[in-house]
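Components:
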Amino acid sequence: MAEDTNRSLYYEFVKGLWEENPIFRMLLGMCPTLAVTNSAVNGLAMGLATTFVLTCSSVMVSLVRKIVPSQVRLATFIVIIATFVTIADYFLKAFFPPISKQLGPYVPLIVVNCVILGRAEAFSSKNPISLSVADASGIGIGFTLALVSLGIVREILGNGSIFNISIFGEWFEPWIVMLLPAGAFITLGIMIGIINAFTIKKTGKGVCFGCSIGYKLQEKLVTAESMYLTPEELEAAKAKPEKKEKKKKEG
Amino acid sequence: MGDMQFIISASPHIRSEESVPKIMYSVIIALIPAIISSIFIFGLKSLWLIVTCTVVSILTEYIFQKIRKKDVTITDGSAAIAGILLALTLPPGFPYPAAALGAIVAIALGKHIFGGLGYNIFNPALIGRAFLQAAFPVLITTWERPLTWLSQEVDAITIATPLAMMKFDMKFESLEKMLIGNIGGSLGETSAIALLLGAAFLLYKGYIQWRIPAGIFTSVVILGGTFWIIDPSKYPDPLFHILAGGMVIGAFFMATDMVTSPITYKGYWIFGIGIGILTIIIRLFGGLPEGVMYSILLMNAITPLINRYTKPRILGRK
Amino acid sequence: MNKTVIRMLLVLTSVGVISGGALSGVYKAAFPRIERHRLEELKRAIFVVLPDAKNYKTLEKNELKVYQGIDETGNPVGIAFEAKGNGFQGKISMMVGIDNQFEKLTGMLVLDQIETPGLGAKIAKDKFQSQFKGLSISPEITYVKNKKPEKPNEIQAITAATISSKAVVKILNRQIKEITETFKLN
Amino acid sequence: MDILVIFIAAAIVNNFVLTYFLGICPFIGVSKRVDHAFSLGIATTFVMTMTAIITWLINHFILIKFNLPFLEYVSFIIVIASLVQLVEMFIRKVNPFLYRTLGIFLPLITTNCAVLGLALFAVLRDYSFIGTVVFGLGAGLGFTLAIVIMAGIREELDMADVPLPLQGAGITLITAGLLALSFMGFAGLITA
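Structure:
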């Protein structure tokens, strides 16, 4: 039994790194991903701040999961998340003012990062603390890795450096566009395409597109696909047991 | 029923017997006066720039089609046109590696990620150019002077384009100089006469939609003229707007690209008028001196919407 | 039914109270540090634009705030103030130093800007900022392009970022005029 | 004049989606069909304008007055979440037809970072009340513009032969990048 728990702890942690990587595989939390990755350092700071909020709020959500009535579940989760985000924000402002200035309003925007609410809702509200921590830190680190790798690519091409260390000589003319919004979109699009090309070969499946805005509302899963259903069809879909959840557990 | 297949083809749906390569090569022929005049004005380096862009474009297309295991269509001339047009929008003296990057972006991001010719949303050459503008803003606004035997002043190597002079120094270049091309600017936008010659050929052959340039020029003359009447010391006259920058090459050779422009008569007019209005707004009130490229790209982006709302409704459908 | 409602209210209230309490504590702990950073940054900026200053005091008049720099002996060495305005992409804010006679700038430091990276953002580079040191402010500051400035009130605009350079000059001229009018007859 | 500048800046020049990356999730998720994109855009614009009004009031009459800056994020997100709920209930009651078209998109707006981003930016830039309202309206319309253009393109791409790995998210992001490239033409429109 103990062994079983250990294995699943490990599993819950590792899955976030690649298999369920929030950015490259699940397409969640796009806005900080694109906004702050103009350098590797910024990506790292943002990733760590998000991991902190994600892990702390998972612990809290898991802790109160049995006390909170389901009607006010989302509201409670949001308040918990917003609280930790404020703490992270003050921490950065007090101890790392330059980083705080760089990230600007994107630190408070962690509140609406769908990754966090998504994990709270889909995982920590249903699992004990140990599993929730494993899940949250795995997802958080996966998120951080994705941000840093995107940051590295954009920094190399846009500024000719990695972690602010210049790596090219004078001959390299930086592509400023990579530091601009257009470069962010294009780089992430190409990276997702490349990762897809590999996973499609291996599993025959691409990213889980449409999960991007998937979260449950009043026991029904609101995803991009369900946007095309009429309320009646949704009702019908609701009547069916949630297959998606089950599949996840089996996987 | 199961065996029945609909033939789905993307635009351009060319209804005449003219084949794609035939039209494409006519466009290349129409560009020859502009190419010659650019060599005449700026020297042999403009020829090398054009060659670089064209070769890299064709090569990129070849590699992409090989990777995707599709038929290689580099002989249809469309990649070559994108390369030539891109080169014509670059300043003389632009570094070749950077120009090659622009050509790769133009063909890869502008065309092949959408599935190749017929599917692209944006004009590939302009995507390449917009990418280069954003990537190397200093290099791409370093305009070399026309060769000294054309110009009397020899004190400076670089020169401002008429539009930049208007924007930052409030000076208007003389119209005759702009017509001939003895001004600062990119390879293909300086000599209006050479471009008009090629455009006349294409119009005569009926290979480009006259309604699009007509829409552009009408709106430029009306809107630009209105501002000119309001304050002639601050705003240039409409003819300046037409001859300056990429207006002529944009209106005849880029906006008329069949794949990325609308498919109805009404759509052509909306498309053209939109480009004209946006160009005037960007030129007179924006931060950048030239707006033709961005106006065409923006109108490319809303072309699907224009088509959607100008298409005749099919009976029995909403 | 009633029980659920009470429980909902109870949970929400306690979550709110706990969150508010925790944040209030964090805020109290962090605020002095944040404030200290802010003041240090302000001080550093003032000393950069008023190189002779060893200390400063705040002056206020007609809702305008300036910092008067003083040397070791307590003599005023000039006035520093914040200048803000629209740049190419958004707000630019700068700390500007001006000498006692309101004739020359003693320095300029860009505090905040979101201009294009690698282009307009060069206004925050030393090469651009140092041009303002010792710059004459009457007549108004102007800029030249692609050549060395010749007159004492000229700076060289950043290549391909004329708008950002122009914006800086425009903001400075406006604010210098305002400050001079308010404080010169002091 | 200032008001006009705020509006144009929020809607076009500094378009929330294309320059601040706010509202990317729905921008990618709900941009498959033009009519849905338009409905979502209008609903979002409405919520954004309301959010701008209410968060301004809260910030000025509660947070600043009682010196409670640390409650900014918590209170704003609560306002947005409840506002969305209220709007949903209100529309359902007043106009069931409108609810059928819009209602389904409303819950999505809570986690649209553009809404919270709007409130935060408005505080950061210290806009006046009218400025904040116009900012909210402009940002909402800018979001609508971006998502409708994107939906138009994606409807067209349905027939296109997009390489398999790029289908869906990849092509959408790259197209957004090209769109952002085109929108750069508007740079400096507010200040020049």
